[in-house]
Amino acid sequence: MHFWAMILEKLTILNYKNIGEVTLDFSPKVNCFIGHNGVGKTNVLDAIHYLSFCRSSISTTDSQVIRHGEEFFMLEGRYSTDESEPEIVYCGMKRGTKKHFKRNGKEYRRLSEHIGLIPIVMVAPADNMIIDGLSEERRRLMDMVISQFDHAYIDHLSRYTKALQQRNSLLRQEAEPDASLLDVLEDQMGYEGECVFAAREAFVNELIPVFQHYYEAISGGCEQVGISYESHCRRGPLAEVIRRDRFKDRAVGYSLHGVHRDDLLFTLGDHQMKREGSQGQNKTFAVALKLAQFDFLKRTASRTTPLLLLDDIFDKLDSVRVERIVEIVSSSGFGQIFVTDTNRDHLDKILARSGGDYKISEVKGDW
Q: What is the pLDDT of residues 344-366, one digit of tens each?
């Protein structure tokens, strides 16, 4: 099976976070950013993420990415592909206005149309929240991967969320809500939610063996790990499950059942990962999960090899696990890689395996 790659050749950044103005040219294989903490290495990776997902991986609102004291930001990426003309992706936004996203000079009507064009997987320190954080972190993980290859999923999730918000609004009002209107919203939540559930379940079932393969490869096979998907959809038709507790939902003022409460249970041996895992095991778990996502997207997102962003990936890992990760990501199955680190030694190991096709940038924070 042929997998084609989209390579980021050039990136222009203007007024993005702590970066004033810079244009960077990249190697088609390995690109390293070395520097102390706080100089802006992660912000380069975040800008690459923004051009794929139409949003930052860190900041919750678009206005937060505009550099202090400036009125706008702009990103532009030039991508080459195996089979077509170069792709130019542009994003710009002035404070107080909506952002503009363009592909080859043509503005998107809906940002969701862009998601999946440039598949991407980012491994970052915040990934420990997938294990330690709230269930919403684990749902976001599923949503980010599935939305990159299944646009219908984005629509189902959007319609479900809208119906959920309307139902919650009715539940909170002082007057008794219209029962027939609640029926309509619950039926919609049931239908859209079951579509979301089916996509998530298929994704998790396919992800598990690949994830376990990567975890075993990094850990040396000395630990048993597992993932299980928990959802109210397993209790019967979702509309009925939601409707059954309408009285209780009215008392608390929000919907207690639905796919907005789905979760992934991570295990180490017979115990929950979040309770038993060491920092190194948690980091290994998160990295294996992201590498499995990479593998999944490569096979599903129009058979396009994703960009792989590795932000401070080696922190909290022993040298043996670092070496094994380096071995994995240096193999031929991976395409263009972007790595940040404060430690030049780690990067030299990667570069020694990269066949000489790499570029190193020392970041000093004076962009």
A: 777 777 677 656 678 888 887 66
Helical H segments across 9-87, by residue range: 41-53
Residue pLDDT, tens place only, 196-253: 999 999 999 999 999 999 999 999 988 899 999 999 999 999 999 999 999 999 999 9
Q: Would you list the DSSP string of 145-167?
A: HHTTT-HHHHHHHHHHHHHHHHH
Strands annotated E in 148-302:
225-230, 263-268, 271-272
Task: Give residue for tokens 């979760």.
Answer: 263
Distance CA 67, CA 254 (A): 38
Both tokens of 235, joined, read: 């209790």
Q: Does an H or E element contain 282, and which?
A: helix 279-300
Place of tokens 């598949």: 119
Residue 207 DSSP SS3 = helix
Q: Which two tokens mark 99?
A: 């952002």
Identity of the amino acid at 24: L
Q: pTM of the prediction?
A: 0.87
d(CA 259, CA 159): 12
Express each pLDDT in 116-136 by its tens digit. Answer: 889 999 999 888 899 999 999
